[in-house]
Amino acid sequence: MRNFLASFRLIRVYALLLLLPLGWFAWGLLTNRRLLGDDNESTETLGASGTGSHRSGGHGGYARFYHK
Amino acid sequence: MSLLANFDAMPSAKLACPNCQHTIVYYDVAGSDHYACEQCHSYFRYSGEEQPVVLNRYNGGPPADLKLLPVGTPGSLNGQACRVVGYTRRCEVQHPEYEWTEYEVFQPATQEYVQLSLFNGHWMLIRPANQMYEVTSDNGGYNHVKQPDATYKLYNRYQARVIFAEGEFNWNIEEDENLTLSEFIAPPVMLVQAQRGAQATWHRAEHIEPKTVAAAFGLNVSDLPARDRMGAVQPNSFKTAWPALRAVTLLAVALLCFGQFYMFSTYPEKQLLNQTLTVRADSSGTPGTNKVLVSSSFTLDHQAALEIDLRTTLNNQWLELPVSLVNEQTGQGFEFTKNIEFYGGVEGGESWTEGDREADAVLARVPPGRYHLNFYPFTEKGVAPTIEVLVTTIPAVWSNFFIVLGLVLVFPAVWAFHSMTMERERWFQSDYNPYPVAV
User: Fold this and answer.
1) Do A34 and B255 touch (CB under 8 A)?
2) Cα–Cα distance, A41 to A61 (Å, whole number)
3) Is residue B417 one of the residues assigned to a domain?
4) Is residue B418 in a domain?
């Protein structure tokens, strides 16, 4: 155990830095985000909040809006 | 009372070199019986009763590190007063290019000796093991010594020859040439077997940092020779930290897996749409323009990421397919475009294919609501493939998992690489190198 604690001291900075990617992952998980490379090309909804509030003056999604 | 004052009170004696009459001061008055003159480099035996007998004379010039710790230098090792009383420069009999230095360090309080060994800037403190060890062989023929604390692997086996000496010794150092020395290592410790015929004695050597040597003898670390390569028992700091690094990394991976598992168990994957649509040409448009295809509506009951899979019946054709996901209540839209092409045939008796009939896209952060998909296909004239559309909710985006997993693993991977590199370097000079060496 003493050896383990001694070796842990050598990597304690790494252990702390590890919280960054884990936090990033948790953020993506809880907000249904894709962390890199979203396929959405719509300028209106790209990175928009998930509440889906309607905004006038947008384009992209609206420009090709079509309903049967 | 200072340490040096203690040394002043330590016993010493003098004798004259039988060759040049130079006065030699020695400190192990009761034990020493062999001496090497600092003036003429004669090596002789003298036990106080008979006439001194000159055994050898070291004609080579004094080694460069002779003045590093001159014979007579006082010091303190592990809190115990000591003095450098002998210097030997040795080389391997079979490979004379491998040379090293051994300092005989006498501890007057216990009347015991330790040796300080210096090779390529790496220091070891050597003591008698005062016990025997059993050497065993594995299937590959490599020998090792198994102990409760570690398995000591055979690192080197050689015979040594003295090429220079100075000071006093309590044994005939020239007879060491008849010894076969086997070094077994489990860094930072080395067990050394000295075999003469059927008789063997063991020594235990331990890595010692240059700063410890410098502190013991009142030197500056910069005075000591720089390290070259990896020492035989130099601690591998990467390996030392590995247990903790592995534990922390495994914990992080477990948290990642738990997050994915939790989301998949709480919000299971759900197929929202499975529909096949057929591309139809739009005669009013330019050639290749097709009518807009509209999917059935489907309902998303919670915010989620959606995976949209597209499977076509293209055959030596291409399809450019802009797609809109439209919220029927708010008009909010998500868009992506896929260029799908698939070609194949037989050439020279071998079949070939290029491209893919399928494509997929992931749309993140899609709010709950009622949706449908609009497709705006563009193809070559006369091409009318069908498109099977599958829309599925993704509880947790897998690409996120793998991206973060990669980030978590990259540091341990680099760490492990460095650790292995150091171990390879350690064993590079060994005749018993377990690592493959490029020829």
Assistant:
1) no
2) 9
3) no
4) no
Q: What letter represents residue B406's amino acid? A: G
Nearest to A54 among B332, B397, B401 (CB): B332
Question: Residues B218, B222, B223, B227: what is their CA dihedral angle, to the nearest 10 degrees?
Answer: 120
Q: Is B244 on the interface with A (CB under 8 A)?
A: yes
A2 three-class SS: helix
Same-domain pairing of B291 and B206: no
Q: Are B279 and B290 in contact (CB under 8 A)?
A: yes
Residues ≥6 apart with Cβ < 8 Å to B17: B23, B24, B35, B37, B39, B40, B42, B44
Residues B191 and B126 in one domain: yes
pLDDT (0 to 100) of residue A53: 36
Residue B104 structure tokens: 């005989």
- Rounded Cα–Cα distance for residues B84 and B70 (Å): 7
Instruction: Give A56 to chain B, closest Cα distance, Å.
Output: 10
ipTM exceeding 0.90? no
The Cβ of residue B165 has, within 10 Å, a number of other Cβ atoms equal to: 27
- Total domains present in chain B: 2
- For residues B22 and B161, membership in a common domain is answered with yes
Place of tokens 């194949």: B344
**pLDDT tens readout for residues B90-143:** 999 999 999 999 999 999 888 899 999 999 999 999 999 999 999 998 776 678
B119 and B182 together in one domain: yes
Is B252 domain-assigned? no
Query: Cβ contacts (< 8 Å) between A2 and chain B: which residues?
Result: none
Is A21 in contact with B397 (Cβ distance < 8 A)? no
Residue A61 has pLDDT above 50, yes or no: no
**Contact state of B303 with A50 under an 8 Å Cβ cutoff:** yes
Residue with tokens 């590079």: B428
B247 interface with A at CB cutoff 8 Å: yes
Buried b / exposed e across B284-321, counting CB within 10 Å, b at 16+?
A: eeeeebbbbbbbeebebeebbbbbbebbbbbeebbbeb
Contact criterion met (CB < 8 Å) for A65 and B324? yes
**pLDDT score, position A58:** 32
Would you say residue B248 lies in a domain?
Answer: no
**Which residues of B fall within a CB distance of 8 Å from A6?**
240
Predicted structure pTM score:
0.73
Give the mean model confidence (pLDDT) for residues B35-58.
Answer: 90
Task: Quote the CA–CA distance of B436 and A30 in Å, as a whole number.
Answer: 48
